[in-house]
Design brief:
The structure is a single chain. By secondary structure, this protein is α/β, with parallel strands linked by helices. The chain is built from nine helices and six strands, in the order E-E-E-H-E-H-E-H-E-H-H-H-H-H-H.
């Protein structure tokens, strides 16, 4: 997208892909900035069609949103901590702070720093974690769309002994199982119309899934090693802090 940017942000080993939308309409802004977090299997590109409408509806100067590690075009480092909700929240908080500071310096005014944080599905967990990391002087408004907040509850209720036993048994074969899993995922997702079929299964109105929608979800899968990033994200879920 013409809105795509790549940056190195504090606390992350690699480049982060993010979108930067600027609202050029003339109005008195209600919010200085909005940040959007995508859900599982998506990227910041999933928000692309909604950005202009969000900017006008909420009268926002600028909207940004990053690809969570493991998804989109953000780099895929080897350490698992990079794929946790906390790491993604660190990226988002750094992006918000840097963008607000640039906006503040460019306008040279004393406007209140007010931001809107939006999260979809599992991105809602990142959004809530971001809210704790932002500077206390920043006024926050939060909107969660279909939040996957029940995930932690399910994880806490899982059979810990069984999970630990499974890890012990599979640990010697970890690399083999990961390689096999990556191969299977690649083959499945490379099949014709696999992305379209998957999106139609979860779309509010399947008949409204367009070629552009499919491309925005499918495109990041051309990145080298995208499937390994997905597996690292899945593994990192077990080391993320308890949110609920």
């Amino acid at each position: 997208s013409p809105l795509s940017r790549y940056s190195e942000l504090p606390g992350f080993k690699g480049h982060v892909h993010w979108l930067d939308y600027k609202n050029h309409r003339k109005f008195q802004p209600r919010l200085a900035l909005a940040h959007v977090n995508h859900g599982f299997g998506a990227s910041s590109l999933s928000w692309l069609p909604a950005l202009p409408a969000l900017a006008d509806r909420f009268q926002i100067k600028r909207l940004v949103g990053h690809d969570s590690p493991g998804f989109g075009f953000t780099d895929r480092p080897k350490d698992l901590h990079s794929y946790t909700f906390e790491s993604s929240a660190d990226i988002g908080a750094s992006l918000v702070h840097e963008t607000l500071n640039k906006e503040h310096n460019a306008t040279s005014n004393n406007d209140t720093k007010t931001v809107l944080l939006m999260g979809h599905s599992m991105g809602s967990l990142t959004t809530l974690e971001m809210a704790k990391k932002l500077d206390p002087s920043i006024e926050q408004h939060i909107i969660l769309v279909d939040p996957a907040l029940g995930y932690r509850r399910i994880q806490k209720q899982s059979n810990t002994r069984l999970a630990n036993a499974f890890k012990t048994i599979t640990r010697p074969f970890g690399h083999v199982l990961t390689a096999l899993g990556c191969y299977v995922v690649r083959r499945v997702m490379e099949r014709p119309n696999s992305w379209r079929t998957g999106l139609r299964a979860v779309w509010g109105d399947p008949s409204r899934v367009t070629d552009s929608d499919v491309l925005r979800f499918q495109w990041p899968a051309i990145a080298k090693g995208w499937e390994r990033g997905l597996f690292r994200y899945a593994k990192a879920l077990s080391i993320s802090k308890d949110h609920l």
